[in-house]
Amino acid sequence: MQRNSWSSRLTYILAIAGATVGFGATWRFPYLVGQNGGGAYVLTFCIAMIVIGIPMILVENAIGRRLKVNAVDAFGGSANGKKIAKGWKIVGWMGILGAFGIMAYYMVIGGWVLNYIAQIAFGLLDLTHVVDFKTTSEFYEQNIVNNPLSISFATLVFVLINYIVLVQGAVKGIEKSAKYLMPLLFLLMLTMVIKNLTLDGVMDGVKFYLTPDFSKINAKLFVDVLGQVFFALSLGFGVMITLSSFVKKDEGLVKISLITGVLNTTIAVLAGFMIFPSLFTFGIEPNSGPSLVFKSLPIVFSNMWAGELFAVAFFTLLMIAALTTSLPIYEVIITTIQEKFKIRRKKAIFIVLGGIFLLGNLPSLMATNLLSDVTIFGKNIFDAYDAISATIFFVLTSLGCAIFVGWVLKDEAKKEILQGSEQYKKVVDIWFWYVKFIIPFIILVVFISSFYDNFLK
């Protein structure tokens, strides 16, 4: 199949930035910071991005661009004069399963956000006067936890928005959306950051966010942070492999990988500045977990001048971040189905989006109401999709990618990286040794610890 390429390095970087920002940076990162003592988590996250994030971006970029095929067949072909065993494609299929798992609940969160935008815009969540935690909690229970019909409709609308973009083509649709949506996301984010930093009494929030309490840094925190790095960078579910398969051979992967890591870290840190200063200004605890942006932030907005406007802007920002991430994750599965089964793109899109909606989104959004009695490993369906994909498939796929590059591709991987990055030969040599010996050990530690915490503890 003839493959298009990104029109420029900038559009590819915007597409990658969109893929790696998402709820990982704007929803998941802030609530994990709140739960883990603030600055200690932020510092460890920045270190982890350097230790494992950027090297693994380069690993997946090398795999993806080498054959310029889908995320499963990328583990085929030959290397160093030998044909690669077909069994390695299992790594690609694990990535596909991980992508399915994350989309099963990710789109539902998108439905939550769309629902909140509508509720605030039409005054059903009235932020023109100060609300308390009891009010926002009851609203969350009524409109998110116990309203499957409304969330089903909102999730379906979000899926249809993705469909409209994806039918334009693998490169054209994602590239065009990233070109316009990412600048808008940055603009909204900066607006929210500036607004937060101009509130009275913000320094307590800034201090909590940036000052590390070294007593909070332990082995568990580091393992949790590494898991967030995988999630935030879309590592382990084929996104980097798929998007880099459309990269021209003369583009410098080293520079692109570095920019991607720095950009993602910067956006994640900025996301915290959208939230923590205002929480402390209005005396709200930052440790409310995954529901932080839905229960705590509406209280903040109700205390602000023009709070409804800023609330809609914030949730619109979340919606854009979700869209720029969901598109490339969908593309991982669509491209694989299209190329493996030789079917037309529109048919592949319909099968993937429809299948995930029926088998993933509907069970996930009913996990806290109609299907609340159904548990998997002691977790409801929504949490099970998250735990299984993040704890098992993401991590094992990343482990397989590192071993594949270090022990199977070997010199072929270095040759691929050096195309367009010849000036970084010494850096690539160090990277290859690190990927071959150190990263697999780190990932194994993450896997064992996460698996124990989620399924055995």
From TrEMBL:
Keywords: Membrane, Symport, Transmembrane, Transmembrane helix, Transport. It is a multi-pass membrane protein. Its main location: membrane. It is found in: Membrane. The chain crosses the membrane at residues 12-33, 39-59, 90-114, 149-168, 180-199, 225-246, 258-284, 304-327, 348-367, 387-409, 430-452. It comes from the Bacteria. InterPro entries: Na/ntran_symport, SNS_sf, YocR/YhdH-like. Belongs to the sodium:neurotransmitter symporter (SNF) (TC 2.A.22) family. This is Transporter.
